[in-house]
Amino acid sequence: MNTTIGDRIKSLREFRDLTQEELAERSGVHVDTIRKLEQGVRQSARISTLRALARALDVQLERLVGQATVTQELSDDADGGLIALRDAIQDIGALPGVPAPADLEDPPSEDEWVGSVKAATSLYWDGNFSALSATLPLLLRDGRAVARETPTERVWTQLGLAYQLAACLSAQAGHTDWAYTAVEKQLAAAERASDPLMAGMGVSTLSWVLLRQGRWEQAQDIAARKAQDLEPGFLRASGPQLAVYGNLLTAAATPAARRNALGDAITFLTAAEAAAVRSGTVRAYGTAFSVVDVRTQKVNVALAGPEPRPDKALEFAGDVSVDTISRPVHSAAYRVDVAQAQYQTGDSGGALDTLLEVEADQPEWLRLQALATATVREMREAEPRRNPRLRGLAARLGIEPVL
Fold first, then answer.
1. Lowest pLDDT segment from 101-105, 384-388, 391-395
2. At what angle do helices 129-149 and 82-89 cross, to 10 degrees?
3. CA-wise closest residue to 110 among 144, 140, 155, 153
4. Nearest 5°: CA angle at 313, between 312 and 317?
5. What is the C-alpha to C-alpha distance for residues 209 and 260, in angstroms, rounded to an integer?
6. Interior/surface letters 83-103, b for 16+ CB within 10 angstroms, e for the rest
7. Which single residue of 81, 89, 192, 257 could bond 76 by disulfide (Cβ 3.0 to 4.6 Å)?
8. What is the pLDDT of the chain when averaged over all its residues?
9. 78 vs 82, 133, 134, 246, CA distance in Å?
10. Interval 346-364 mean pLDDT
11. What residues pair up with 282 in beta bridges, in sequence order?
């Protein structure tokens, strides 16, 4: 039997020993809305309503709306998958006092392994998560072996990048506890590499993981403080220095918006855009940084708070050319934000067209996006008449039975 949002709200509310009226008071959501959700009269609610309920219930939004998990989407067979990734992240042999298993074969050469990290990074940004989930466990195992054989700063930096990929993939699939452990190992590798920029990217990744856990204040604080630590002199700063600095500012912006501090979020992004103008387009430390990357984030933060501004989001979107977004997954995430803004301003047809475009480009990635699924569920509830295109998308996202 499928568990609905209402079922999860009721279960979490009862677990915390709250009445519907008490939850309404905590969240600022009308008690009638909570009652209708729990009774199944309504199958969804606005994203801002769901965020308020999640915060009042002290739970991740993704858990409340039903984040896709390893058993739903990504490979979980004996030869790979996310369970194998978990075991690779939580490496038992790396614990003090636990004898490490002997390597069954010689590790690859340093150059060969570094090339594998680069290929895995491409898989992530292309949205090919199934292939990446099968690749990463071996990549991490080989990386640790290469680091034992040739513990150069280059190897430790690349191992940090591999753990960054593991953290991002784990968080995308709803396993933020694995992601947190992976970030710990990314930061440890950055320290072994004596690489402050890798440490900066580790903090940026950690901020995103904390955001996914609903720890908004901490997510903003650590990213903002690390950006201050690494703030470069603009006249002499290198591209990678500006890129890491800008990524940290961008990471701080979304949790600021979630905390209803849109002004602070825009301040962060204005500074990040200035860095991007100075740096130009930069690819470094497993990510990309450019003016368009910052401008897409402005669209996101306009929608992120308890009082979303879809009109402002669409205004910001006017400054973005989709064709200039270099990473396919980033392009998809931006267009999902645009679809939410379109729907919230009454353009249901435009929102559906945009989501179908995203699905055509990134079907696997879209099925892992809890907020996109929540938007489609809300659209289905608001438009009960027969709409084959909307019903088909809802079925493919698991919202209703396959047609």
1. 101-105
2. 30
3. 155
4. 115
5. 19
6. bbbbebbeeeeeeeeeeeeee
7. 81
8. 87
9. 10, 12, 10, 40
10. 94
11. 289
